UniProtKB/TrEMBL annotation:
GO terms for cellular component: cytoplasm. The lineage of its organism: Bacteria, Bacillati, Actinomycetota, Actinomycetes, Kitasatosporales. Belongs to the methyltransferase superfamily. Tam family. It catalyses: trans-aconitate + S-adenosyl-L-methionine = (E)-3-(methoxycarbonyl)pent-2-enedioate + S-adenosyl-L-homocysteine. The gene is tam. SUPFAM superfamilies: S-adenosyl-L-methionine-dependent methyltransferases. This is Trans-aconitate 2-methyltransferase. Its EC number is 2.1.1.144. Residues 62-158 form the Methyltransferase domain. Residues 1-30 are annotated as: Disordered. It comes from Streptomyces subrutilus. The keyword Manganese does not apply.
């Protein structure tokens, strides 16, 4: 089911509106802040990787969609050192970090490279053995609508595998959404702080992937993460869920501080710190879909 035409990968400028106003603003990302919790964030990717079967091609051709700072992309090269691996992302900041730290030849004669792309419009330009995405598709409206095209570009026996957070009803996100919608912040954020949720339930992903003729394995896991340091949940979301708010408030430091002060108090109540740290439960949804050989 490969398409004959392959549109070029395109990406709007960081901080730009994705379409005509009013519309969502593309958040700016901070790789340093994001990587402060790199161990907890990489764990689900390792759990996903453990379920991915061997790719049909040798060397394998692999795409990592929403590769971020490239540290989990590099884990693909650890497993398949001969593979040609490309990471795609919308964020200039993330791509710069990924390229600086991970691009180049790999130990087994393969390669890692990174490219700008908006996953909302990304179509492969060549067949892949594995298309993978970790903690990125929840930012992409309508992403299940792209599954048919992505799976269609897999070689027979190839795999499409992804992980998305499933914790949007958790206090961390519910309190953030409430705060964004409060009278004080609603007009200030102009609708660009509150983030929409683009994630299906596991059963819906399973239905979608098997409906496309794949052999699919879908599951969910809640990680009971023990975080350390002061206000660690706030520190975590500063790297992810808060990006749209921080982008919308921009250089207005008093507004940023006022927003964070209120949100910090709400999080302290929802996630009290204990003698051994702060427990931050985090549900995640996984899918591994194999195209029949
Ligand atoms: C939470 S980070 C995950 C990064 C990496 N996959 C990891 O597991 O560490 C989400 C990434 O998705 C990217 N992203 C969000 N929307 C995107 C889009 N429409 N197209 C491409 N990348 C996007 C962001 O720029 C960010 O780097």
């Amino acid at each position: 089911m490969q398409s004959d035409t392959a549109p070029a990968h395109t990406a709007p400028a960081p901080g730009a509106r994705t379409s005509g106003a009013p519309g969502p603003t593309v958040p700016t990302w901070d790789p340093g802040q994001y990587l402060r919790h790199a161990d907890h964030r990489a764990r689900p990717f390792l759990d996903l990787l453990a379920r991915i079967p061997e790719p049909p091609g040798r060397p394998a051709r692999i795409a990592d969609l929403g590769c971020g700072p490239g540290n989990v992309t590099a884990l693909l090269a650890d497993r398949w050192p001969e593979a040609r691996i490309s990471g795609f992302d919308l964020s200039r900041e993330m791509l710069e970090r990924a390229t600086a730290e991970h691009a180049g030849p790999t130990a087994g004669g393969g390669s890692l490279d990174f490219h700008p792309a908006d996953l909302a419009h990304w179509i492969p330009e060549e067949p892949y053995d594995l298309i993978v995405s970790n903690a990125a598709l929840q930012w992409v409206p309508g992403h299940p609508g792209s599954f048919a095209a992505w799976i269609g570009w897999l070689r027979p026996g190839g795999t499409f595998a992804f992980q998305v957070p499933g914790n949007f009803a958790a206090p961390s996100h519910a309190l953030l959404a409430e705060l964004c919608e409060s009278p004080r912040w609603r007009s200030r954020l102009g609708g660009h702080g509150a983030r929409s949720v683009h994630q299906l339930d596991p059963a819906a992903y399973l239905d979608r992937l098997t409906g496309l003729g794949c052999t699919a394995d879908v599951w969910e896991t809640t990680y009971h993460q023990l975080l350390h340091g002061p206000d660690p949940v706030l520190d975590w979301v500063k790297g992810t869920a808060l990006r749209p708010v921080l982008t919308a408030l921009g250089d207005d430091r008093p507004a940023v501080e006022a927003f964070l002060d209120t949100y910090r108090e709400l999080l302290r109540e929802a996630y009290p710190s204990g003698p051994r740290g702060t427990v931050f439960p985090f549900r995640r949804i996984f899918a591994v879909a194999r195209r029949d050989a």
